Amino acid sequence: MYVAVKGGEAAIANAHRLLADRRRGDRSLPSITVEQVVEQLGLAVDRVMAEASLYDRSLAALAVRQARGDMIEAIFILRAYRTTLPRFGYSEPVDTANMKVERRVSATYKDLPGGQLLGPTFDYTHRLLDPGLHGDAAVAAPAVKEPGEQVMRVSDILDGEGLIESDGEMPEGHVAGDLTREPMEFPMPRDLRLQALARGDEGFLLALAYSTQRGYGRTHPFVGEVRIGEVEVELDLPELGFAVSLGTIRVTECQMVNQFKGSATEPPQFTRGYGLVFGQSERKAMSMSLVDRALRTDEFSEDIVAPAQDQEFVISHADNVQATGFVEHLKLPHYVDFQAELDLVRRMRREYEAARAGGKDGIKEAAE
Known about the structure:
This protein is α+β, with helices and mostly antiparallel strands. The protein has helices spanning 8-24, 34-40, 42-52, 57-66, 71-82, 154-160, 190-199, 202-213, 282-294, 311-318, 320-328, 335-367; strands at residues 100-105, 221-237, 242-260, 269-278. InterPro entries: PhnI.
C-alpha cells in the first residue's frame, strides 16, 4: 500500500472517498446506469471485454463506470475480476464460417456472393459534431434487419483457385496454450501469439500495423474481409458424447490478404493475416491481422527488419495492463533509491568541477 506518504492509510481512504465523489459528479444530474453504458457506449464496452478477455457486457460496463471512462483502468479491473472465476473447461473452436453476419465488407471484390453488408459503421459519416445529441428527446429507431445471414468467406474464392495459402492445420494432438495460466516463452507458436494480440492494447497494435504499411515490415495488405456478427459457442461434454450450445457471442473477424512471391518450397500466392476480437472492434481486428502477418517471418523465410516482425518486442509490450503496472509503479515511493542517486550525482558534480578548475589553472600557468 501507499503507506509511506504523509497520512498513510488515512490518506488513502480519503483519496478513495474523493475518487468516489468525482465519479458521481454533479448530484443535480441523474446517475448513469450500467444499462445505459451497455446500450449507448457499446464500443467502449466491447473494447474492455476484448482486452480483459472476458465476454460479459454488464460487467464490462460496470468497469467502465467504476473507472470513470478510463479504458485501461476498466480493462485492469475486469481482468482482475476474471482471475477469480472458476475454469470449467474449454469451448470447441468457434466456426466463423457460420457467423450470422451483421456487417461484412471486402476491399478485394466489389461483387460478392451475399453482397457487401455495410451494417453500423462510421466509415461514411462526416466527422462533424452533432449538436442534436445534446437533447434527450427520443428518436424513433429505423427498422433494422436482424443479423442472420450466413455468407461465404472471401478467402474461399481465392482458395478455389489455389491462390491463397490454406487455413493450415495444427499438429495432431496439439493442445492450444493459455496465456492466462502459462508463462510466456519465446519463440511463441501462432495460437499463443494470436491470444496475446487479441488481449493487446488497441492503440499499440494500431501503431505497429501502421508502421508495417509505411515500410517497416513486409506487408502489402488488402482487406480480404471484415465481418461482424453472432457466432455460436459450444462446449463438449464427455458424459453426453457431444457438444452443447452455450449461446452466442458477437465478434469481429478480419482476414488480410498479402502478396507472397514464393520460396523454394512454396509457389507464389497470397498469404493471410488474421484477427478475431470480441464485439464490434474493426480497428483492433484489422490491426491484429496486419501484425499477425508481420510476425510470421519464420514461416516464409523472411528477415526480421522491423519492430512489428519481432515477436519478443511485440508480445512483450502489447499488454496494456502489464505496461500500466510497470509505468505507474514509478508513482510509488522511491525515496531511498533517489537519495542514493542524488548523492552520487552530487559527488560526480564536485569531481567534475574540481577537474575543470584544475584544468583552467594548468592552462594559465603554461601561458605565463
